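Section: protein folds

Sequence with per-residue tokens
===
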Amino acid sequence: MEKKLIINICASEDSFGAYAKNCSGINIAGDSVKDIKEQVPKVIELYKEVNPESEWEDPIRENWSIEWKYDVQSILNYYSGIISNAALERLTGINQKQLWNYAHGVKKPRQAAKEKIESALHKLGQELIEFSF
């Protein structure tokens, strides 16, 4: 199994933050998920500049690939310009108002809702991978 540097992305009221779950010293703040993703390679380079190579943790030393983990608010915000709440409602069975509340941090979804959203997005992604013209 491939080893991965796990980056957790979280949304707040007015910004986004991210941190490496399995490597200390990797912390990022930005205005969007796109901003976070663009900054991660720069933060890793800064990590290498600041820390002696003998102190680099395995994900940095071995150049592990990145796995992105999101909270519900950040993933809904990230794809809001691509997937409408109406489409998400059809995919997940969760009404649009509730999805809006999750995306804007008004309410936090329960575990069952998180699983519905994740499952629906994974299913959509798999369907998109499997088709051809």
